[in-house]
Specification:
With about 475 residues, the protein is mainly alpha-helical. It contains 21 helices and two strands.
């Protein structure tokens, strides 16, 4: 009963994405994050299957280097040197890339490609930090949508071969130059606020978010190893549907504002259907249909990156973020190695392995619906998904510990912080994107717990005239 109630409530949950919340000063942080992941997913178009090292193909090696680089380079960063490390990573990656461009396809070119993919992973790691802690909800969502849109556009062009393969390298050169340009304009002052955050811990909300983020990546990577997945026909089908899916996701989010949880489910369902259809005879109608259904992979990317940013912005800090990135991303190379090894030694088992893996991961995700409801989408702080950003109004109050040990809920602490900042019930309702009735309800409960009757007594209780003064 609890499971079905949680599942239905999650279907009805909503977010608040509004295009007016995008800030021009944050475009460099929105664009940089899409650039690197797009490149990381294009390696299958750069090398033939004949180029191998240690028995592994170029895609497996480059993908692994990308994951290891993201963790290894980010391990040496701090908030104060983030901008500097970003610039160095960008320059080193660009130099290695330009060398790769002029070398014919060979083992040497693969080694150089591995080196710039390693550096590119570091660029993406720094970019992901900015994406998480500098952007607001709308910027974060549109940035995630841009990742998917750029990738789908490249798939479509690669399949159509408008410029006979020349476009791929031209496009990648543009991405690298764009990455370096965005990194060059990173500003240390944009990250300073993260230093003031209270010490965080790996709580249930973070763990649930990380489960989906890792799971979506792990089940998706199997597709790139399936027979014909990189054929022109598959690229066109996947790219065309992917573009439509991204546009549909953005439109629905702006209009219906349905929770991102719905995208998570659509992604898993589409991926499982894709893998099941690979059991059909080759060149059959159902087998070809799998290429189109797989375009819904883009919903997984959007949901994963959006949740990553939102939950870390609310519950994380630099220490936890670095710990997760340094630990998880190098381990992500397993997502390449496992299907890569199966493809090399038992390719006939790939559809079965992909289907079983995706099915188990999805079942676990659904079974955890009560936890996702309790700790994420219907948690005490879940109104923040319907705010401009994951609110931090209570941060200044928390630093002084004046609201600790008072039996206040997280939402009541936020209301108290806003009251101490001089906000009235209407302003609190607007700031938290809740009704005035709900705001007054929280204020009433707050006063009752503190055994006071009005705002003046609240200020007197904490010896404050107003935190805004």
């Amino acid at each position: 009963m609890v499971f079905f109630k949680s599942f239905l409530s999650l279907l009805r949950s909503k977010d608040n994405i509004n295009i007016r919340n995008v800030r021009a000063s944050r475009l460099k942080y929105m664009l940089i994050f899409p650039l690197a992941p797009v490149f990381a997913n294009m390696q299958e178009a750069l090398f033939s299957d004949s180029i191998r090292l240690f028995g592994l193909d170029a895609m497996t090696l480059m993908g692994s280097a990308y994951c290891i680089g993201a963790g290894a380079l980010f391990a040496f960063t701090s908030i104060k040197n983030m901008a500097l490390v970003s610039r160095i990573s960008g320059i080193a990656t660009a130099v290695a890339f330009m060398v790769w461009l002029i070398i014919p396809e060979s083992v040497l070119s693969l080694l150089i490609a591995i080196s710039f993919m390693f550096g590119l992973g570091g660029c993406a790691a720094c970019a992901s930090f900015a994406y998480t802690f500098v952007l607001n909800n709308t910027e974060r969502f549109l940035g995630a949508a841009a990742i998917s849109l750029f990738f789908a556009l490249n798939q479509l062009d690669s399949g159509l071969s408008f410029l006979s393969g020349f476009f791929d390298k031209l496009y990648l050169t543009t991405l690298i130059l764009g990455t370096c340009t965005c990194l060059f304009f990173y500003k240390t002052k944009d990250f300073i606020a993260v230093e003031d955050r209270p010490r965080a811990r790996l709580n249930p909300a973070l763990k649930l978010m990380l489960y989906f983020f890792i799971a979506h990546y792990f089940v998706e990577i199997f597709y790139t190893y399936l027979p014909g997945a990189s054929s022109p026909e598959a690229m066109v089908a996947n790219g065309a549907v992917g573009i439509i899916v991204v546009c549909l996701a953005v439109t629905l989010q702006l209009i219906t504002r349905r929770s991102i949880w719905n995208m998570c489910n659509l992604f898993f369902i589409a991926i499982i259907c894709t893998y099941i259809l690979y059991f059909m005879p080759e060149n059959s109608l159902l087998r070809n249909l799998a290429r189109y259904i797989h375009g819904f992979e883009q919903m997984g990317y959007i949901a994963a990156y959006y949740l990553l940013g939102c939950v870390f912005k609310k519950h994380g800090d630099f220490r936890i973020f670095k710990l997760c990135l340094v630990t998880i991303l190098p381990l992500s190379m397993v997502s390449y190695v496992i299907p890569g090894a199966i493809s090399a030694y038992r390719p006939d088992l790939l559809p079965l392995a992909a289907t079983l893996t995706s099915g188990v991961v999805f079942i676990v995700f659904i079974l955890m619906s009560p936890a996702y409801s309790k700790y994420l989408f219907y948690a005490e702080w879940s109104d923040d998904f319907r705010s401009i950003d994951m609110t931090e109004a209570v941060r200044k109050v928390e630093q002084s510990d004046i609201l600790e040990n008072l039996r206040l809920t997280p939402r009541e602490k936020e209301v108290a912080a806003l009251l101490l900042h001089g906000k009235d019930a209407k302003q609190i309702a607007e700031g938290l994107t809740i009704s005035i009735h709900t705001a007054n309800f929280h204020i009433k409960n707050l006063y009752k717990k503190l055994k006071i009757n009005n705002r003046s007594e609240l200020f007197a209780r904490f010896n404050f005239r107003s935190l805004s003064s």
